[in-house]
Amino acid sequence: MLFEADERIGYVYFPTGAVASLVVTLSTGEIIEAAMVGVDGVLGASAALDGKISLSRGIVQLAGEIAVCDIDALKSVALQSPKLFSLLIRHEQTVYAQAQQSAACFATHQVEARLCRWLLRARDLSENDNLPFTQEYLAEMLGVRRTSVTEVAHTLQEAGLIKYARGKIQIVNADGLRASACECYASVKAHYQKLIGPFPR
Question: Which of 12, 22, 102, 176 could form a disulfide with 44 if both were Cys (CB 3.0 to 4.6 A apart)?
Fold first, then answer.
């Protein structure tokens, strides 16, 4: 857990090896993912721009290194650097755009296309074809029942796109996943390209 919703943020997080999600918690206890951030971005940047209360929960979904910066230190540097200040604002736009795209995706796209999109995004940010996710976790992030994820994972495995064992997913055909993913995967990448530039490697 990096931060909770409705809490004052004290630090800004720059994932260099980890992958984290911004999630919304419902009154039922369910959580739904709004955006995913990894080597391409930062969590809590709005705190350095005076948005000091988090509107969502920040959680690490794939373990790895994260650089941590005090918000006052980052704000001080950003106020002295118009280029950095602009970059932080544009980054927050990409996160907002991703959350908007996720809302549209949840409302209109089938579970299979959404899972393909989610796996590709996690692959991009972790730079790894092997993803240690359980069906329960995937169902939670996608806001669907576990049985739905089980059925879709079986279909994707039968199609030769992934290999699935308990708690582990291996992407074996990324091109096939891209062909099966909804338009949201490409849209999120396009927003990033327009606002920030080439995806970091």
Answer: 12
